[in-house]
What we know:
With 351 residues, the protein is of the alpha+beta class. It has one domain (37-349). The protein is built from 10 helices and 13 strands. β3 and β4 (104-108) form a beta hairpin. α4 packs across α8, α8 packs across α10 and α9 crosses α10. The relative contact order is 0.15.
Amino acid sequence: MPRSCLRFVLFLLLFCPANLFHTFAQAPAAVAKEDEGKDNDTLIRQEQIHNPILWNDPGDIRSLDLFYGQGGRKAQPVAPFSFEKEVRSQSTPKFDARDTTGKRWRVKLGHEARPEVVSSRLLWAVGYFASDDYVLPSAEISGIHMHRGKKYVKGERITDARFARKPSGQKKVYTWRWKENPFTGTRELNGLRVMMALLNSWDLKDENNAIFYDKNNDRQIFLVSDIGTTFGRTGLHFTNGPSKDNVKAYVNSKFILRTTETTVDFATPSRTPSLLLETLGFGIKQYLRRNNMVWIGRGIPRKDAHWVGALLGQLSHRQLVDAFLAGNYPPEDIDQFVRVLEQRIAELEAL
């Protein structure tokens, strides 16, 4: 950032009304208090860890159905749907609904719905855990009443919405830290870091990580549960739309920044000093927070990046296309997304 711009930002921070900055910084927390039924977001402690698992062998990757995903055709949400409650604890418009079979679904609207489903398909394909999720191009939700995201609702109809639910027998019990977890230094965690870079997943807050207790197998499943800020830029910008679900931004973004004989640095998540200028300095809290995430994409062992690249390399062109069809993307966008993905996978395999 030019020194003149930095001086301007510092001036704003020092002399603009403190209450304005306070409002900008605290708004998300104020919203969070309104939702009494949100999931358990408590960070797990060392003594609470029991049979943790982050990755499992995906088996024959070439045979996986990336259109229907891990839930398959039979687990899809079945109309008609009835509205239960709005979820107001997070920035993206969400609500809970039940389908005609009685299953409860967490429905997400907006820019994160489509890329989240594609991202979950790719993570699942190489052995990482995900929710059962689907994009419904159109759905009628009886009794829907939203305070946020009204622009995505026309009467009782919604479009391009993500319907997600945890697999049977699983419940969210904790969240986990990128820096402190049972898998630190392992190939599997490093592979997950590579996957975040592959997808341009830049919103790597610890609260976007979840631990599901799988009572059927008595184990704690560690996963990245919020992966909607993907397939756009490599970092946060004040104009948040282009930062995710943006084919032009994804195509033009960097992937590998540099390599050494033993490590590789990825562009995602990136530092975004332009955020300070775009917000006239009031985004400094977010800027500093994002800076603390940059390490997740840096200094990854080449052999671990190659390992996950070899898994991805088993996916066919048709399977990659199916993943984006699951997100209800138009053919012209799918062509561009898949072309970049295949280039990136080849770069990983070459490490």
